[in-house]
Design goal:
Elements lengths: L2 H21 L5 H22 L4 H59 L5 H29 L3 H20 L1 H11 L5 H39 L5 H10 L6 H18 L5 H26 L8 H42 L28
Length: about 375
């Protein structure tokens, strides 16, 4: 098979795979979740196996313990989160009205300084924003329920995900050996190197970033609750769990927290609480940037934040929630392949290589670098 035929074969295979993911995206959620769980639990399973336990027994113990903890956490948190979500939706009009009453006098006074009458227009705009916000919340809840959180989908997620995770964990080594035997012998070493690099990036994100998100969610939820912020638990958990999107988690949590705190504490002149909430997020960012990320991730991710955000948006637009779940692993694989392609190009005759001067140094318009942007 010629190189051109091989390229055509792999491109057709990729197109078929993407078409199948798009067609079957409505039923793939428990399988994708099961694969993610299996990937997350593979290291502790390997450790138990190294201590003398059989692969099947080690897999059973790890999967059972993981899902028991998940069920306990769900039973503990779901009633609290449900009451906070419903309470937040119920109080949202009051929050917006309180914010309007607080901000409208300031806007009116500011407008008077510049000779602009903003009283009536600002009040009408605030009322319209309040109505739009309430409608948005209810539409979001309705779409979430109909789009991916229906009872049938929840039941299939709870039943199928543990089964998929168990079989993937138990047979992981056999699957890797089978895949290795299918590699084209001529390029097997190169492909194995690329797959090892992809695995390192995915491990850094799924295991490392997942651990960081859980720690931040616990920290923000507990911190905001102890600070006395209404609905602090749900806002904190949301901030931590969304922190895998660069800059989005902390920014969203800070905005929601400050809006809630302004309506809750500002009428009483309690500026200390506002400062405490701001400090919680500052400490969270320091904790994430200087302690958690260096220790749990290091330089293993290797994905530019803009590339991660683009991948998440593109995955969600193409394949829905399943696309969001597979976006970063796909982005990791694409990033590794692009870097490999760039490296091959920079070492090829097509690129020609940098021109050296007589002293062996590169000219000013040919700065050194690997050419990677991902």
């Amino acid at each position: 098979m010629s190189t051109q035929q091989q390229v055509r074969y792999w491109l057709i295979s990729l197109a078929v795979l993407l078409a199948l993911v798009w067609l079957l995206s409505s039923i793939l959620l428990p399988f994708v979740a099961g694969m993610a769980v299996a990937y997350f639990l593979d290291p502790p399973t390997d450790k138990l196996e190294a201590r003398g336990l059989g692969r099947g027994l080690a897999t059973s113990l790890v999967v059972i313990l993981f899902f028991v903890l998940m069920v306990l956490a769900t039973l503990l948190l779901v009633p609290i989160l449900q009451s906070q979500i419903l309470g937040f939706a119920d109080r949202l009009p009051g929050y917006i009205a309180g914010l309007r009453e607080t901000a409208l006098p300031l806007l009116t006074e500011l407008g008077q300084k510049f000779g602009v009458d903003v009283g009536a227009s600002a009040g009408d705009a605030a009322k319209e924003m309040a109505a739009d916000a309430v409608n948005f919340v209810f539409q979001l809840l309705r779409r979430a329920w109909s789009g991916g959180l229906a009872l049938f989908n929840i039941l299939t997620l709870l039943v199928i995900t543990p089964v998929v995770a168990f079989y993937l964990l138990r047979d992981f080594d056999h699957m890797i050996a089978a895949l290795n035997s299918w590699l084209p012998r001529q390029h097997a070493k190169t492909v194995r190197g690329l797959l090892a690099e992809i695995d390192e990036v995915m491990a850094g994100f799924i295991r490392g970033q997942g651990t960081v998100c859980l720690i931040l969610a616990s920290y923000y939820g507990l911190g905001l609750t102890l600070a006395g912020l209404e609905f602090g638990l749900i806002i904190g958990l949301l901030s931590g769990l969304v922190s895998f999107i660069p800059f989005v988690g902390a920014t969203t949590g800070l905005v929601l927290s400050m809006l809630t705190a302004l309506t809750q504490f500002l009428p009483d002149g309690d500026f200390l609480r506002l400062g405490i909430i701001a400090v919680i997020f500052v400490v969270g960012q320091v904790l994430e940037g200087y302690i958690l990320t260096p220790r749990l991730l290091g330089d293993r991710i290797g994905l530019h934040p803009v590339w991660v955000m683009f991948a998440l948006l593109a995955g969600g637009a193409l394949f829905g929630f399943v696309g969001v779940l597979i976006a970063v692993p796909a982005a990791a694989a694409i990033g590794v392949m692009v870097r490999f392609g760039l490296s091959s190009y920079l070492g090829s005759k097509l690129y020609g290589g940098p021109t050296e001067l007589s002293d062996g140094k590169l000219p000013a318009d040919d700065p050194p670098g690997d050419g990677s942007i991902l």
